[in-house]
Amino acid sequence: MTEPIVQYQDVHKSFGDTEVLTGINLDIEPAEKVAVIGPSGSGKTTIIRMLMTLEEPTSGDIIVDGKNLWHMEKNGELVPANEKHLRQVRGNIGMVFQHFNLFPHMTILDNCMSAPIHVQKVDKQEAKQRSIEMLEKVGLGDKLDSYPNQLSGGQKQRVAMARALVMRPKVMLFDEVTSALDPELVGEVLEVIRDIANEGEMAMVLVTHEMEFARDIADRVLFLDNGVIAEEGPPAEVLENSTNDRLQSFLHRFRT
Amino acid sequence: MNSGNWQWNTFFEAFPVVVEGLGITLGLTVATYLFALIFGFVWTLLSAIRITPIRWLFRWIMEFIRSTPPLVQLFFIFYAWPMVPIVGFALDPFTSAIVGLGIHFSTYIGEVYRSGIEAVEKGQWEAAKALNFSTGQKWSKIILPQAIPPTIPMLGNYLIIMFKEIPLASTIGVAGILNLANSYGSANFRYLEPLTIVALLFLLLSYPSAILINKLERRMNRRFDKKEKSGSKPLKEEKEGAAS
């Protein structure tokens, strides 16, 4: 058995008085592709946002590549992580957002190049080379000097993926990346994710409503309900043969 | 006070005398504005402090400065500050004017900065974090380049408003155009022409600036419109979400 790249250990998360996650335990293997499904409000997005350090867990630990994400050791004791520690561990993780969140004041190329140059201190020429290659891979090699507002939603999302991939994360998070797109643009984005998934080496966690797609590319599907992982397993098992009533009625809505 | 009282020869005689003060008036405007731009940023930082009582304290101080007449602040700095025990010291009129008016207008400028920063979408902060930018890089490369340009017309408006308050400095003896016009008036018992010159000079300078800023504002708005139109529907939803 290889060491998991990410481990959630009894992770709880509350917003005010509402407990959204009530004890998440989850190991993600390197290169594993995990799809997270569930009704809205079930906390699926919160799970990956905590891993990206956009939300802090109320309790529990998240271990990334053997390092505790939200806690660090100080004089032999575990204390809440400071920004320096968070930055160190966060470097393993990349994320693509529902609303793309491209930097509107930068060209497509600069959107991709700036983090490698300033964060990872990659040589400028090399960062440029890498970014161009990545943008070509997502089919936008001819848009290098365009600005985000000149692109379609699908193109923006492909840039966002290139931007995250250039950082070469060990884990990539996809937060409902097709939900904000016009239906005819969903395909091109899923196509790119499929290509990335097929390359294999990176772990991926996809929060998605695309059941067909989840079945195709995921090694494992998690069904999140009432703050816990209510059902998990290979796609065929979870999406077709589960006896969980809540899952059945959730899936039913997608079959019409 | 009949119209026959207007004397062109007085006008032409007073004109060079009054214009002499234009350098001081404009210099004071620029210096005060720079002071306000820099000090405004300090207010923005102070009112963003995460410790709530301290943040409230600074917001309250800002509110206090804004609700007090600039003339009172000017007098305080020039006449009262030197008498404050231990920390007080005397400032010359020009410096007093920069500090007094500069602090007053910096509270408005600070609000402008804050509105610009708050207008940057939440997703931009999250993307900056996801790409692991340091705090300094996040501000210098992602947030400020987006927050500042839309505020430029507003900052320009404050420049004009401030320019029109600059003659307040004549009350503590800064030899700007109003002060010189006044001296000319009392020396020659003729106020109509020199004060008309002062009004004309202000009009001549602030009206074109206002037009320029109006143009700038329209250009900024157009840029924003373009962004809105080409943005996909969900972008709008996101804005509503951020507002709620």
TrEMBL record, chain A:
<dbReference type="InterPro" id="IPR014343">
    <property type="entry name" value="Ectoine_EhuA"/>
</dbReference>
<dbReference type="GO" id="GO:0005886">
    <property type="term" value="C:plasma membrane"/>
</dbReference>
<keyword id="KW-0029">Amino-acid transport</keyword>
<keyword id="KW-0813">Transport</keyword>
<dbReference type="InterPro" id="IPR050086">
    <property type="entry name" value="MetN_ABC_transporter-like"/>
</dbReference>
<dbReference type="InterPro" id="IPR030679">
    <property type="entry name" value="ABC_ATPase_HisP-typ"/>
</dbReference>
<dbReference type="InterPro" id="IPR003439">
    <property type="entry name" value="ABC_transporter-like_ATP-bd"/>
</dbReference>
<keyword id="KW-0472">Membrane</keyword>
<dbReference type="Pfam" id="PF00005">
    <property type="entry name" value="ABC_tran"/>
</dbReference>
<keyword id="KW-1003">Cell membrane</keyword>
<comment type="similarity">
    <text>Belongs to the ABC transporter superfamily.</text>
</comment>
<dbReference type="InterPro" id="IPR017871">
    <property type="entry name" value="ABC_transporter-like_CS"/>
</dbReference>
<dbReference type="GO" id="GO:0015424">
    <property type="term" value="F:ABC-type amino acid transporter activity"/>
</dbReference>
<dbReference type="InterPro" id="IPR027417">
    <property type="entry name" value="P-loop_NTPase"/>
</dbReference>
<keyword id="KW-0067">ATP-binding</keyword>
<protein>
    <submittedName>
        <fullName>Ectoine/hydroxyectoine ABC transporter ATP-binding protein EhuA</fullName>
    </submittedName>
</protein>
<dbReference type="GO" id="GO:0016887">
    <property type="term" value="F:ATP hydrolysis activity"/>
</dbReference>
<keyword id="KW-0547">Nucleotide-binding</keyword>
<feature type="domain" description="ABC transporter">
    <location>
        <begin position="6"/>
        <end position="251"/>
    </location>
</feature>
<dbReference type="InterPro" id="IPR003593">
    <property type="entry name" value="AAA+_ATPase"/>
</dbReference>
<dbReference type="GO" id="GO:0005524">
    <property type="term" value="F:ATP binding"/>
</dbReference>
From TrEMBL, chain B:
<dbReference type="GO" id="GO:0043190">
    <property type="term" value="C:ATP-binding cassette (ABC) transporter complex"/>
</dbReference>
<dbReference type="InterPro" id="IPR035906">
    <property type="entry name" value="MetI-like_sf"/>
</dbReference>
<keyword id="KW-1133">Transmembrane helix</keyword>
<dbReference type="InterPro" id="IPR014341">
    <property type="entry name" value="Ectoine_EhuD"/>
</dbReference>
<keyword id="KW-1003">Cell membrane</keyword>
<dbReference type="InterPro" id="IPR000515">
    <property type="entry name" value="MetI-like"/>
</dbReference>
<feature type="transmembrane region" description="Helical">
    <location>
        <begin position="24"/>
        <end position="49"/>
    </location>
</feature>
<keyword id="KW-0813">Transport</keyword>
<protein>
    <submittedName>
        <fullName>Ectoine/hydroxyectoine ABC transporter permease subunit EhuD</fullName>
    </submittedName>
</protein>
<dbReference type="GO" id="GO:0022857">
    <property type="term" value="F:transmembrane transporter activity"/>
</dbReference>
<dbReference type="Pfam" id="PF00528">
    <property type="entry name" value="BPD_transp_1"/>
</dbReference>
<dbReference type="InterPro" id="IPR010065">
    <property type="entry name" value="AA_ABC_transptr_permease_3TM"/>
</dbReference>
<feature type="domain" description="ABC transmembrane type-1">
    <location>
        <begin position="22"/>
        <end position="213"/>
    </location>
</feature>
<keyword id="KW-0472">Membrane</keyword>
<feature type="transmembrane region" description="Helical">
    <location>
        <begin position="195"/>
        <end position="213"/>
    </location>
</feature>
<feature type="region of interest" description="Disordered">
    <location>
        <begin position="224"/>
        <end position="244"/>
    </location>
</feature>
<keyword id="KW-0812">Transmembrane</keyword>
<comment type="similarity">
    <text>Belongs to the binding-protein-dependent transport system permease family.</text>
</comment>
<dbReference type="GO" id="GO:0006865">
    <property type="term" value="P:amino acid transport"/>
</dbReference>
<feature type="transmembrane region" description="Helical">
    <location>
        <begin position="70"/>
        <end position="91"/>
    </location>
</feature>
<dbReference type="InterPro" id="IPR043429">
    <property type="entry name" value="ArtM/GltK/GlnP/TcyL/YhdX-like"/>
</dbReference>
<keyword id="KW-0029">Amino-acid transport</keyword>
